[in-house]
Design a protein that fits this description.
Oligomer: homodimer
Number of helices of chain A: 8
Structural class of chain A: alpha+beta
Largest interface: A-B, 31 and 31 residues
Helix content of chain A: 25-40%
Strand content of chain A: 15-25%
Strand order of the largest sheet of chain A: 1-6-5-4-3-9-2
Chain lengths: 221, 221
């Protein structure tokens, strides 16, 4: 295909884009906790686990690595999460944008939900770059793979960086057995966020996840 | 601690070292497949899974992600591997350098075993940089954490890059819940490879893993 909408990181041009990029404060912590979805439908769960660990959110116990711990694609289903979504439901049908927001909300992190259809390219870019520039925020996008010339349809993954000169975002694809991390043109990413998710009947979009301020009222430690 | 033996990647100096480094051809494929050890003793297994996937070695079936597949910390124990090492043995006591080499050899990839005590710093550096510069090779080091001013003792992890100006290697620590990726001075890394593993009575060291040439005689496809 003769397009440069998407540049993969395992190619010399993709690697060079990372070296040049200036908005990449999230990258090393996302890299540290980057995982593969355990089922084809677990993209939202895998993206959330990566982001929660990278924000150093206190996780449930994990006996296999005691006394250490971290979020996994199993222990993320806490009592509070199970009230909204169960593993078998996700395994069967994945999550919509709002269902994933409910999972994260149940874990008491801040979640802002943005529907792609409600923002133009400029506001999408600005909102994403602002979040990628904040130490206490992370971004998960819900995009249509077809717009990125990839097989499949709806898919969740974290963003980790922005390249201003090329106006591209670094997408850390959690279906790692299918796709390496890649740089997506902002206009192409926006287009991939505006399509309708047939399960919800609403557009795709993105979530901005924020670490709770431990000094704020009403937030559990 | 007032030393700069180890610089972590989630700090601005660590991130800058990556941008400046020139020997980093392995990085993006290691990043793509980087995982956390599932038990505290599974470092060699987690490092091997990362490296095997990054070399695109044909893996066993993985029903949860069918029709895709990849190596995991479970399916790496093929019949041929089980002949040498079993999960319960590794869970209980980890692997020595030679035990991990036997696991990889059973998977029919090329494995060269280097004992730290048999190489000086210069030869260690040259051998590691040569391997990190080869598209078909990957490196797993067996080092003593104490030399890196970290808690613990023997530990396996892949290397992913080399910074010539600072003479440092990028270590992708698979105990990700403990340590971010970090840049280790070559002399410090060498020192961490020469200590004795009390289980084997031999020194630690490193493995160079090579993707088999599919056109060579006697190598299974």
């Amino acid at each position: 295909m003769a397009h440069d909408d998407v540049v993969y990181c395992d190619t010399p041009p993709g690697a060079r884009l990372f070296d040049e990029a200036t908005v990449k404060g999230h990258f090393w912590t996302i890299c540290r906790y980057f995982i593969s979805e355990k089922f084809l439908t677990y993209c939202g769960i895998a993206a959330s686990v990566t982001v929660l660990n990278s924000l150093a959110i206190d996780s449930p116990e994990e006996p296999q690595i005691y006394p250490y711990k971290m979020f996994t694609q199993d222990n993320i289903f806490t009592d509070a999460v199970l009230h909204h979504r169960r593993p078998l439901e996700v395994e069967k049908g994945g999550n919509t944008l709002e269902q994933l927001a409910a999972v994260l909300d149940a874990l008491r992190v801040g979640v802002e939900t943005y529907f792609g259809s409600e923002l133009d390219v400029d506001r999408t870019r600005r909102t994403l770059v602002d979040a990628l520039s904040a130490e206490d925020k992370r971004v998960i996008v819900d995009f249509d793979r077809k717009t990125l010339h990839q097989k499949g349809s709806g898919h969740f993954s974290p963003l980790a960086a922005y390249h201003k000169g090329e106006d591209r975002f670094l997408l850390m694809d959690v279906a790692r057995y299918k796709s390496p991390p890649c740089w997506v043109k902002a206009a192409v990413l926006h287009e991939a966020l505006v399509g309708i998710d047939t399960t919800s009947g609403k557009s795709r979009g993105f979530l901005v996840v924020t670490r709770p301020d431990p000094t704020a009222d009403g937030v559990a430690a």
